[in-house]
Amino acid sequence: MSNKRIPTKMYLQESELPTCWYNINAVMKEKHAPALNPETLKPLTAEELSEVFCEELVKQELNMTDEYIPIPEPVQEFYRMIRPSPLTRAYCLEKVLDTPAEIYYKFEGNNTSGSHKLNSAIAQAYYAKEQGLTSLTTETGAGQWGTALSMACAYYGLDLTVFMVKSSAELKPFRKAVIETYGGKVIPSPSETTKVGREILKAYPGTGGSLGCAISEATEKALETPGCRYVLGSTLDHVILHQSIIGLETKAVLEKYEIEPDLLISCVGGGSNFGGFIAPFVKDKIEGKAKYKIIGVEPASCPSMTRGKYAYDFGDTGKMTPLFKMCTLGNGFMPSTSHSGGLRYHGMNPIVSKLYHDGYIEATSVEQTKVFEAAVKFAKSEGILPAPESAHTIRVAIDEALKCKETGEKKKIVFCLTGTGYFDLTAYSAFNNGTMTDYIPTDAELEKGFATLPKVE
Ligand SMILES: *Cc1c(COP(=O)(O)O)cnc(C)c1O
Question: Quick one: pLDDT band at residue 58, thresholds 50, 70, 90?
Fold first, then answer.
């Protein structure tokens, strides 16, 4: 194999596809701190979690011992329609950069929802159906999660209500149209349909809404509707578990073609694609079998790892969720509007936070205009228009490849390309006509966010 040309597109055969997800919690020498009930400050029990979430997902969330968790056959069947996603050798980008580095990317945007989020949406809808539930609620900011979940609910015949941040629903009418085509009901949030929504509207008439507010409405609706539960598209451990399908396939295909990666990169919003992508590689690192360099990329406007604190915090602005020990900018931190909605989150998944804190992974932040420069370079050379979130990863991959050009190193860089940019054309227009700006919060602004951290001791 070593003398042969590596193909541009590399696939696994159906018989080589993973049949289990990988639970990274099981291999971590020191586990991350448990989520706490904010009133008692005691670790959350399965019972408490089950009021809001599906039972099987709660079991997965709290599972710290089983390394491999079987993927139910019906979920595997759905995966076979959209997976494996290809691993591509970026020969054309390498040529444009004139780098000795080898660049590879795993593309997760080849389905109608346009991102990796469908990997978890289909699993979550399956478990809801198995439990005998009839409907789900969720919130969506940028819209990718709502789209993925509407596809999954349509597949399993579940009703879906999506509380979509009002400003986003107005900005992205086409996302709304896709969700509705799949039968999902979109309610711009804050709305008159929930108690918390009515209260917010009274206090802030004309508000464009926020993710925190949409979470509060979706949770209330789930609690008050029989046969209904709330589901989340990122930040929780079970979502990372489902996204491990990305990392498992990547590792298997790299081994098949005898490629040993040096560097693994992906963007981090709530941490789900990144956590899933790196999971089987982190296993090697923890077990002392490999020394990959692993980098998570975040926007400079919302730097929860590179400039945040490692502390207990609420997952939402409305302080309704449990407390999670994580890298956070404080639940009251308001990131400036950016075109990468999927990365605008004040916190970070607890596994990813712990790995960062313990030094297994690194993090870096990048500015929006530089991200779009990289996106355009990639689009022109590799034939894919990337999602703005994914373009954060591309920026860092390109910078690393350019460093190799200086040092002459032939590093093998592998990254996860999480989605397509078809629904983000307003962002590309802003970049093209020069109206895009960069915003980096000052230390004083970050202090305001840290001041909202709950006192836990
Ligand atoms: C949601 C999203 C992200 C960020 O979410 P994670 O949970 O951190 O993976 C990244 N890229 C795309 C395309 C997304 O839709």
Answer: very high
